[in-house]
Specification:
CATH superfamily of the largest domain in chain A: P-loop containing nucleotide triphosphate hydrolases
Strand content of chain A: 15-25%
Shape of chain B: globular
Distance between the termini of chain B: 50 Å
Largest sheet of chain A: 7 strands, mixed
Order of helices and strands of chain A: EEHEEEEHEHHHHEHEEHHEHEHEHHHH
Number of helices of chain B: 21
CATH topology of the largest domain in chain A: Rossmann fold
Number of helices of chain A: 15
Largest sheet of chain B: 7 strands, mixed
Radius of gyration of chain B: 26 Å
Number of strands of chain B: 22
CATH architecture of the largest domain in chain A: 3-Layer(aba) Sandwich
Number of domains of chain A: 3
Largest interface: A-B, 42 and 54 residues
Helix content of chain A: 40-55%
Distance between the termini of chain A: 50 Å
Strand order of the largest sheet of chain A: 3-4-5-6-2-1-7
Radius of gyration of chain A: 26 Å
Oligomer: heterodimer
CATH class of the largest domain in chain A: Alpha Beta
Shape of chain A: globular
């Protein structure tokens, strides 16, 4: 009956060692297959479970190590094809998997929608009907109050302002259409529309940026330590870990398999990624070539590149510089306790705008400088962590992305010189998406705006 | 009371205004023996307010009525004194025609049309009450004791029910323009259980043309090559009359402010609700007091009269203040008022008491249409009238009800709004009320609705054949353009660069037309076609190709909407028995009795959770009913 595929986190959030992202609908299996690295699950038998990784197709980044259950309809809870992705318990990883599933075109399930589908598809019999209705009611009400509670006043205030801006713009276009002879208001021009949409677009981008930074704060900066053998990578790792004994594990379950170390450097959480990987980077460029290693390194938010102060720059060092060009990195010239053979000038030239720090890890020197540089790299020296948490709800982020896309469609139409009443279709959609964030979809607002903003009539 | 039997009809239409006309003609053309009763045979299709038909959204409604076989488009094409296409610099979806009408010619043409209509009887008389037996309407009784029995009755009494004219502190019972009001019918409807409310509208003074100094105003001419409303009108030369533009000023506003307390609408007495979009000049001054001036359009009321309508000066100020006020307006310093402006208050049937067919929920076979349902405007009235007429006849012949959805017509948008949401002020159609306005264009009203009219019986064979031919030619031309390849030769690129674009590789003509710089005419000149395609086919091909992406997107939205419209709610649904639906939503659902889940979702106060539960209940309706 339903044609779209829905997804949601179907386990209580933040509790338990395992979280499940569930997909249900005709596209559930192909969608999961598109983000799953492992066995070809489109061929998998029903009611089987498979080990593999969830990979974000946009970045090729591995998001999570998972077990995936394939259940083909009709012998499932909803009677549709269902895929359940079992993630590590943490909110972070499970949210990440959900986001990736949404990026494949799945729709975020409404509260109680799996149960509703189960019912509509005849999975649940009559004796349970009343209970289902109560459940939908309860879940919807609860979700509503949770959603409202989750919404920071700053976010709803900002969204309301953006919506009012858009509404006035739309009303302006409407008055030109419905009252073509009304001369009190300037005819809305493409330039005015371009300016307005750009402003709102920028604000939405900033909100998404906040969301991204907030995510970094919650998840930690993926940090890779690279360099030739024996330059002091392990010492650097140990120094950072020892120096910052408070390992950030606010998020339960994230440290189950120790492939990551969490350290908090002056309020910046670092996730020292894949310690095994760090060992392998010793010959990463040799092994897989510059292009491929760049791909691997791109997954990092920050790269700590260690050089030997006591040796001249080698060809291998230069290849590594090449591999990290354009990424965020900090160069660490280690072993200042030994004689300087490294050319500071040469290093600075290769490092460009990125920080260059001198340390002697053996003598515990220079760690402070490094920590300051890390903080500076990501927050331009100013960190107000409180400000970066208010756009964290997956639903909000998804709607912001949709709003942004609709606005970009409008902006494209402006550049194509489409008539403004056509451009306005996508501006109105943007307004609607933003409205969904704050739960306001009243369609009468436009008419009200029209008549309060302009003096119209015969 | 001594009454006499005056005969039996299939359909009786009470009123012969813009709604009544369409209702009567549609019912008659579908084969019903139809009677139209009107207060005054000399006032058929009278325009009590501005002498104008069309405008944004409204002009599209006129074409929709025409596509369904209605008469408004033909009447205005015969009687216009000025025609303009509006919004020509905007997209195709919002363009619309507006005409200034010769009021008298419009009325004469209307009467002639009704007199010559087969199956239609025209009679002068005031209806006092309805004959209702066991909740079914069976006819009407007139003031002069005539009893007409019928299968169904359509009431289209406009602003006449308990009408009251207000000018300053003067007030008297009256229909528009001092016609007799309808006093008894309101009581009868209330006795039958209908909820009525009071609305208000107004009209400006009229002045005599030779007292106007036009040199102080700006001329507003009609289009050089006027288009027509009706798809059947044949091109002819019409000498057009201009309108004139002038403005109010601080002196005008001073007079109004000094006398505000004298205005019927500002005297402190509680009155019916007026429309925000049809404000009196007093409203404009009060609500937008920072505006230094307001536009005034001077519109001739016809060729054979010197009377001029002063658009923008609708008022209920005392007559002597109107004289004082009008003299402050440039060009009107010596203007002689022929008729004073006034406000009129009248009874309205709360439209949520109607089914989407325009039949009342209370009384079977009783329909209401037009301003009585709380709308304003001749076009809105016509749109409802034709649907009421078609549905009355359809029911008579045991045919399916004819309901237009929100993606099919502005008429559908309007009726859905009225019956689902109701209205707390006189309702006017605006393009912004339509979610899918790119689909609801004036240029494709025939493609949208002719088929429906033909199936119902309001559109004849000749007209239908013409529509089919147009449809065929449009498809054929689109196919042709999709096959033609245009190569990037030097000459071609020279031509295209003049247009502001160029070609790197060969493209289909179809895809080239999608570029914003290129018009269908450009393609035509590139291809040098031999075709004698009619203009409207070329226009259609151009629009359909150029806006294909947007049209497709809109259609996808429509598909989603229709899915919910297709989920019908059974007649015998017992909302009380459905646990889980919120109490407020239950009350609303019981009152509106939506026909589909889609309609239910548009009722204010019914939230998505209620809709989900309703859906669950309906999908499992059979099981649920067994359990009950």
């Amino acid at each position: 009956m339903e044609t779209d595929t829905i997804t949601a986190i179907s386990t209580p959030i933040g509790e338990g060692a395992i979280s499940i992202v569930r997909l249900s609908g005709p596209e559930a299996i192909p969608m999961a297959a598109a983000i799953f690295q492992g066995k070809d699950i489109t061929e998998a038998a029903s009611h089987t479970m498979h080990y593999g990784k969830i990979v974000d197709p946009a970045t090729n980044e591995v998001a999570e190590e998972v077990m995936v259950s394939i259940m083909r309809g009709p012998k499932t809870f909803t009677r549709e094809d269902i895929v359940e992705i079992n993630c590590h318990g943490g909110l972070v990883s499970v949210n990440r998997v959900l986001e990736i599933a949404l990026s494949q075109g799945a729709r975020l399930a409404e509260p109680g929608e799996f149960t509703k589908r189960a019912f509509l598809n005849g999975r649940i019999d009559l004796s349970q009907a009343e209970a289902v209705m109560d459940l939908i009611r309860a879940k919807t009400d609860k979700a509503m109050s949770v959603a409202l509670k989750q919404m920071d006043g700053r976010l709803s205030g900002l969204i309301q302002r953006l919506r009012q801006d858009l509404l006035e713009t739309v009303a302006h276009v409407e008055v030109n259409i419905d009252y073509p002879e009304y001369d009190d208001v300037e005819e809305m021009s493409h330039d005015m529309m371009r300016k307005k949409t750009k402003e709102v677009h920028q604000e939405i981008e900033e909100l998404l940026q906040v969301a991204k930074q907030g995510k970094i704060l919650r998840e930690g900066l993926a940090t890779a330590i690279i360099g030739r053998p024996n330059v002091g990578k392990s010492s650097l790792m140990n120094a950072l870990v020892q120096e910052n004994k408070a390992i950030v594990t606010e998020i339960p379950g994230t440290t189950r398999d120790i492939i990551e170390e969490y350290v908090n450097v002056r309020g910046v959480p670092l996730r020292l990624v894949d310690t095994a990987g760090i060992r392998e980077t010793e010959d990463i460029v040799e092994k897989i070539g510059v292009e491929r290693s760049r791909q691997v390194l791109k997954e990092s938010d920050l790269i700590l590149f260690v050089l030997n102060y006591n040796e001249e720059l080698t060809a291998e060092d230069k290849k590594l510089f090449e591999a990290i060009e354009g990424l965020d990195f900090i160069v660490i010239m280690n072993k200042t306790d030994l004689e300087q053979k490294l050319s500071l000038e040469e290093v600075k030239e290769l490092a460009g705008e990125n920080a260059v720090i001198s340390t002697s890890l053996i003598e515990d020197e220079g760690i402070d400088d490094l920590e300051a540089a890390i903080a500076k790299t990501f927050f331009a020296g100013e960190i107000d962590t409180g400000d970066l948490t208010y756009v964290s709800n997956v639903r909000h982020i998804q709607l912001l992305k949709q709003a942004k896309q609709a606005l970009e469609d409008a902006m494209e139409a402006i550049e194509l010189d489409m008539p403004l009443d056509i451009v306005q279709i996508d501006v109105t959609r943007t307004w609607e998406f933003l409205g969904e964030i704050i739960g306001d979809t009243a369609s009468d607002s436009l008419i009200d705006q029209l008549f309060s903003q302009f003096c119209l009539g015969k | 009371m001594m009454t006499y039997n005056a005969g039996h009809y299939d359909v009786i239409v009470v009123g012969a205004g813009h709604a009544g006309m369409e209702a009567g003609v549609a019912a008659a053309r579908m084969g019903s023996k139809t009677l139209m009763l009107t207060l005054n045979l000399d006032m058929i299709a009278f325009m009590p307010c501005n002498p104008s038909i069309g405008g944004p959204a409204k002009g599209i409604v006129v074409r929709e009525v025409d596509a369904l076989g209605g008469v408004m488009g033909k009447l205005i094409d015969k009687s216009f004194i000025q025609m303009r296409m509006l919004n020509t610099r905007k997209g195709p979806a919002v363009q619309a025609l507006r005409a200034q009408a010769d009021k008298n010619v419009y009325m004469q043409e209307a009467k002639k049309l009704l007199e010559n209509e087969e199956n239609l009887t025209l009679h002068q008389g005031m209806v006092d009450s309805l004959i209702v037996e066991d909740g079914v309407c069976k006819g009407v009784v007139t003031e002069t004791k005539a009893v007409y029995t019928s299968e169904s009755v359509i009431i289209t009494t406009g602003t006449f029910m308990r009408g009251k004219v207000l000018i300053g502190d003067v007030e008297y019972e009256s229909g528009p323009n001092n016609q007799r009001p309808t006093l008894k019918l309101s009581n009868n409807l209330e006795e039958l259980g209908f909820k009525l409310t009071r609305f208000k509208t107004g009209t400006p003074p009229r002045v005599i043309s030779h007292s106007i100094d036009y040199s102080k105003t700006e001329i507003q001419p009609g289009d050089e090559n006027p288009k027509y409303f009706s798809y059947e009108t044949i091109d002819r030369v019409v000498e057009q009359l201009p309108c004139w533009l002038t403005y109010t000023n601080e002196f005008t506003h001073q007079v109004i402010n000094d006398n505000l307390g004298m205005s019927a609408m500002y005297s402190g007495v509680k009155r019916g609700t007026g429309a925000r979009y049809c404000p009196s000049i007093e409203d404009k001054i009060v609500r937008f007091n920072d505006k230094p001036r307001h536009q005034i359009f001077l519109e001739p009321e016809g060729r054979d009269t010197d009377e001029v309508y002063v658009q923008g000066l609708s008022t209920s100020l005392p007559e002597y203040v109107q004289h004082e006020m009008i003299k402050t307006v440039p060009g009107l310093e010596n203007a002689q008022i022929m008729r004073a402006g006034y406000a009129i208050e009248y009874d309205v049937v709360v439209p949520s008491q109607l089914w989407p067919t325009m039949e009342t929920k209370n009384i079977e076979n009783l329909f209401t249409a037009g301003q009585i349902n709380g709308t304003s405007g001749y076009e809105e009235a016509a749109g409802q009238g034709i649907m009421a007429g078609m549905n009355a006849a359809a029911k008579l012949f045991g045919k399916e009800p004819i309901i237009l959805d929100r993606s099919q017509a502005y008429i559908g948008v309007m009726i859905d709004d009225l019956v689902t949401k109701g209205t707390n002020e006189p309702y006017r159609l605006l393009t912004s009320r339509a979610e899918y306005r790119l689909l609801l264009r004036h240029d494709n009203a025939d493609l949208r609705l002719t088929e429906i009219g033909y199936q119902a019986g309001t559109v004849d064979e000749k007209r239908y054949a013409k529509y089919e031919e147009k449809k065929r030619l449009v498809e054929q031309e689109k196919k042709r353009l999709n096959k033609l390849i245009i190569k990037p030769s030097a000459d071609m690129n020279k031509f295209l660069e003049d247009m502001g674009t160029h070609l790197k590789e060969a493209v289909k003509a179809y895809d080239l037309l999608k570029r914003p710089e290129i018009t269908y005419e450009n393609i035509e000149s590139i291809l040098q076609p031999d075709s004698d395609l009619p203009e409207e086919v070329k226009e259609q091909v151009g629009i359909q190709i150029k806006y294909e992406g947007y049209i497709k997107k809109a259609k996808e939205q429509v598909d989603r909407m229709l899915k919910m419209e297709d989920k019908k709610i059974p007649d015998d649904i017992d909302y009380n028995a459905i646990s889980g639906i919120a109490t407020e939503a239950k009350e609303k659902l019981k009152k509106i009795r939506p026909l589909s889940v889609g309609q239910a979702s548009r009722i204010s106060g019914v939230n998505p959770a209620d809709v989900s539960i309703l859906l669950v209940y309906i999908e499992q309706g059979d099981i649920a009913r067994v359990a009950n």
